[in-house]
């Protein structure tokens, strides 16, 4: 194999890491300042943005240790049978890159994933060695997110948690059938077993820290996972149900949804077209409903189409749910409990908190609510205020069409 420079490896291994959404940055147009015009570039390799536990947006060096892999997951560009250029960093190279990017203020942390080389244990040892060297030899205080390998020795995952802020394991596909078809070497039971092990370690170490101030921290930013959407025929309803069970059973901080994107030299079992990106967005909205608005998975799933099991793309899932459950509306903003206010389409957590604070002092009018939201038109049919009472929703047969954004001509040249 031809020896590659660090820059060439970075090109290959940062590009290979972009398919992992669990620390996502949004795409943008390519620009750079070569030719001495302007400053800056949007093409820098390997830097993406993520949110720290305190809500700060941080830049991370996002790379793979290697894009070689002994597994052959059909949806993955790095699979064994894929015809791509391979590269591999040494532990020292990743450490040096992280430190030099950090010193130049390019990044505030590292997101490190890897294909599986030789064995799961060997790969995990290499990743732990990177995190250990950064923390112990260089006293690196920045953010570290390590992707762990479910088959690796639990002791290695434990060590990873002592050095990393966040750990994640991808469940990859929402159903066991999908996993068996598209990632036959992966085992859903082992993946969930590894998540359960991390959850217990986090709880044990958290308990120890409550008793002993100097007990070590274990993955203080928790664990997360990613599901690929649209590579198999799993419905949104199945995805929502799986995500909810992962949140409940393993106390995940986040489930990320990644719309399957066709890869170069794809496997014949994959669909030819990617699902609409809006589907991914609707799943994030439904996830938000479960995490912040108090909906159960079965409630969110009730907003899906009964035939396809998928969320509508033209309206958001909270509105879709409200239209399916018209009998509970309108909700009185001056009397309803918090959990009912959170069900009004278009009212977010902040707006609900402000309604609860304001109504202690006076009765709220429609105008008062309008000041808390961007679209009172969307809310009006669902709420009662001191000067407003809508027609019963069940009497409004055309409500859905009133709420659906008008279709717009697509731009041929965008
Ligand atoms: S194990 Fe990971 S890197 Fe290897 S083929 Fe599967 S998804 Fe890709």
From TrEMBL:
Entry cofactors: [4Fe-4S] cluster
Keyword Metal-binding: yes
Keywords associated with the record: Iron, Iron-sulfur, Metal-binding, S-adenosyl-L-methionine
Gene Ontology molecular function: any one: metal ion binding
Domain Elp3/MiaA/NifB-like radical SAM core as annotated: residue spans: 59-286
UniProt cross-references to InterPro entries, sorted A to Z: Aldolase_TIM, DNA_rSAM_put, Elp3/MiaA/NifB-like_rSAM, Endo/Exo/Phosphatase_dom_1, rSAM, rSAM_sf, RuvA_2-like
Protein name as catalogued: Elp3/MiaA/NifB-like radical SAM core domain-containing protein
